[in-house]
UniProtKB/TrEMBL annotation:
GO terms for biological process: regulation of DNA-templated transcription. It comes from Providencia rettgeri. The keyword Protein transport does not apply. Residues 93-137 form the OmpR/PhoB-type domain. It comes from the Bacteria. The modification 4-aspartylphosphate is found at D12. The gene is torR_2. This is TorCAD operon transcriptional regulatory protein torR.
Length: 137
């Protein structure tokens, strides 16, 4: 994990050579990564301890694959929301830059790779709301 970016870990508590709960705690202390514990332990105390050790979610076996996929997608979505916004303000032009676009709020223009894009007033106002309030809509 020091060499490769990892967004999410599915971890079984009952590992053959290591305590999965202690590994969860160690991962949480060192990395900002989503952790879903997948285990056969279904007692309430096991779930509570797993979450207290730093897991973001806890699912028990046998599990429904579709449920696990939804839990993974939801956790990845929350992780993405917590990341710093990719929108940045370039102060000299009063321009918000994102994904190849430049929204110039002083000139009321939008460009994509230096090509002007026509916007209605409503589209422009919505875009300004989005870029000035990243990850809130």
């Amino acid at each position: 994990m020091d060499q490769q970016v990892v967004d999410l870990i599915l971890l079984d508590i009952n590992l053959p050579d290591e305590n999965g709960l202690m590994l969860t705690r160690a991962l949480r202390e060192r990395f900002t990564v989503g952790i879903i514990l997948v285990t056969g332990r279904c007692d309430q105390i096991d779930r509570i301890v797993g979450l207290e050790m730093g897991a973001d979610d806890y699912v028990t076996k046998p599990l429904e694959l579709r449920e696990l996929v939804v839990r993974v997608k939801n956790l990845l979505w929350r992780i993405d929301l917590a990341k710093p916004s990719q929108t940045q303000v370039v102060s000299q032009d009063n321009c918000y830059q994102f994904a190849g676009y430049c929204l110039n709020v002083s000139m009321h223009t939008l460009e994509f790779k230096h090509q002007a894009i026509k916007l209605t007033r409503a589209e422009y106002e919505m875009l300004v709301a989005f870029v000035t309030n990243p990850r809130r809509f």
